[in-house]
Write a structure and sequence with these properties.
CATH class of the largest domain: Mainly Alpha
Strand content: 5-15%
Number of strands: 6
Distance between the termini: 54 Å
CATH topology of the largest domain: Hypothetical protein af1432
CATH architecture of the largest domain: Orthogonal Bundle
Largest sheet: 6 strands, antiparallel
Order of helices and strands: HHHHHHHHHHHHHHHHHHHHEEEHEHHEEH
Number of domains: 3
Radius of gyration: 24 Å
Shape: globular
Length: 493
């Protein structure tokens, strides 16, 4: 299935995030007080992503191009700006209540509620884990979904169409993003994080390769929790997320559930002005009411039969994009860093060849496992984002790592090779058709490329396999040249 033209970063930032009227009034009230702790300004700012962004932009302007430590809390940010500048932050900003209408305003309000609740949970778990800076976790979770907020402001029909595809039409989220937006939300999120100079932890939480870092885990789990609970708290996806939160906090499912439910109630009390129902309001509801809320947001068409079946979506190859990336890699051999080559390769596979999910997994130093280093196409798949393959016993992937070789797993050879895939990897990938190629540099194994089309309904054909291997070869060739260059530098040092 083809996508719309991708939204440009300039279109996505044409209008800034608006702020809530409540935030304006709260800062005005502080102006009349003789002495106000900086913490009070920080509390107001962190309940409003638009005001948070305005603060970060003001700090960037005030500091110029000087390389200083990043600001990780809004109390610190307010202090650095100074009283007069903080009190002027709302001046000239658009108001949510006036600048947005219809589903744009409703969508923005719901997204802000999710962002604040995710921030509250991440902050709360930071204290439980004795994190040295829980406010940094809060700020990062609040701004994690900045791309969605910007879309509701600047392209509301596109983000509304995305939600319809996912929740009414049951299109897998990663594919729905490609169809509705022309790119992934995490791609837009990364571009915005660069454009807006957001804190480093925001950048890391938007890259799946950092998903095993404990602090990133806290942010990502908080975001996933509020996404999964937006229709109710008692579904299998919510329970699975709570189990992972239990691992993160070293607590049982029952303990974590009770704590998270209580925190959701506290978060609702902390910020009751956003104009959308908080997740805590769904706590009394029993399972089975999800469809009611989905139908309220996307009324069923007359005569349409409800369906819970997930739609199959096959990404369309983009030959021009493929050729562009091949040319960039060929011209960059001997010049581009290995990480840049790997990123180009996986984007060529995803965007150019139309492969839904692509991974480059690096071999651990002790050679005991393969761990995802770069990923694309799995933004909303929290299970797949934990891509890791143990090499502790003989199986398909240990054989692949013995020498440079590739495999196209398809119906013609499935009986031979599928039983060699470990059960935990079968569960991880959820498909029995994929491409894979091991990478060796100077006779030593370093990693592995993996790609699939997410399900059995999209053909993993030979022509696409040839493109996959072409990009693998280019990346490997560039990495070998870089290794030789490094070796020659070491020899002459």
């Amino acid at each position: 299935m083809s996508s719309l033209d991708p939204i440009t970063i300039d279109e996505l930032t044409a209008r800034p995030l608006p702020i809530f009227g409540h935030s304006v009034q709260a800062i005005r009230r502080l102006r009349s007080e003789a002495t106000v702790p900086w913490e009070k300004y920080g509390d107001i700012i962190l309940k409003d992503p638009g005001l948070t962004l305005q603060t970060l932009m003001a700090l960037r302007e005030a500091r110029g191009a000087r390389h200083e430590d990043p600001v990780t809390s809004m109390e610190q940010g307010a202090m650095l700006l100074g009283l007069a500048r903080v009190q002027q932050l709302p001046d000239g900003c658009e108001r949510v209540e006036e600048s947005l209408q219809g589903h744009a305003r409703e969508g923005y309000r719901r997204a802000v509620v999710r962002a604040f609740n995710a921030a509250y949970h991440a902050w709360d778990w930071g204290f439980l884990r004795r994190d040295p800076n829980p406010d940094e976790l809060l700020l990062s979770a609040l701004m994690h979904d900045a791309a969605e907020l910007a879309l509701w402001v600047n392209a509301p029909d596109r983000i509304h169409a995305l939600r319809r595809l996912v929740y009414r039409d049951h299109v897998p989220p990663a594919e729905a993003q490609y169809i509705a937006l022309g790119e992934s939300l995490e791609h837009f999120g990364r571009r915005l994080a660069e454009r807006w100079n957001l804190p480093p932890l925001v950048h890391e939480a938007l890259r799946p390769e950092y998903s095993h870092e404990p602090r990133v885990q806290g942010v990502v789990l908080a975001v996933e929790l509020v996404r999964e609970s937006q229709w109710g708290w008692y579904s299998p996806p919510v329970e699975e997320t709570l189990e992972r939160i239990g691992e993160h906090l070293d607590g049982s499912l029952g303990e974590v559930s009770r704590h998270v439910h209580a925190a959701a109630v506290r978060a609702a009390r902390e910020a009751d002005f956003h104009g959308a129902a908080p997740p805590a309001s769904l706590l009394p509801l029993q399972p089975g009411g999800e469809q009611y809320f989905i139908d309220a947001e996307f009324p069923p068409e007359a005569g349409a039969e409800p369906s819970n079946a997930q739609a199959a979506v096959c990404l369309s190859p983009q030959p021009a994009r493929f050729d562009e990336i091949v040319q960039q890699m060929e011209q960059g051999l001997g010049r581009l860093e290995s990480n840049d080559l790997l990123r180009l390769a996986i984007h060529g596979m995803h965007e150019g060849a139309g492969l839904n999910r692509v991974v480059f997994a690096i071999l651990s130093n002790d050679r005991r496992y393969l761990q995802a280093r770069f990923m694309v196409g799995s933004d909303s798949d929290s299970r797949f984002n934990r891509f890791r393959i143990a090499l502790d016993r003989p199986h398909l992937f240990t054989r692949l790592m013995e020498k440079p070789q590739s495999l196209r797993l398809h119906p013609g050879n499935r009986d031979k090779f599928w039983p060699l895939v470990p059960a935990e990897v079968q569960a991880l990938i959820g498909t029995d058709s994929f491409f894979v190629q091991s990478v060796h540099i100077n006779g030593r194994p370093v990693g592995l490329f993996y790609a699939d089309r997410h399900g059995p309904d999209c053909d993993m054909d030979q022509a696409t396999y040839d493109k996959f291997r072409q990009l693998c070869r280019l990346a490997t060739q560039g990495m070998m040249l870089n290794a030789r260059r490094q070796a020659s530098k070491g020899a002459t040092a």
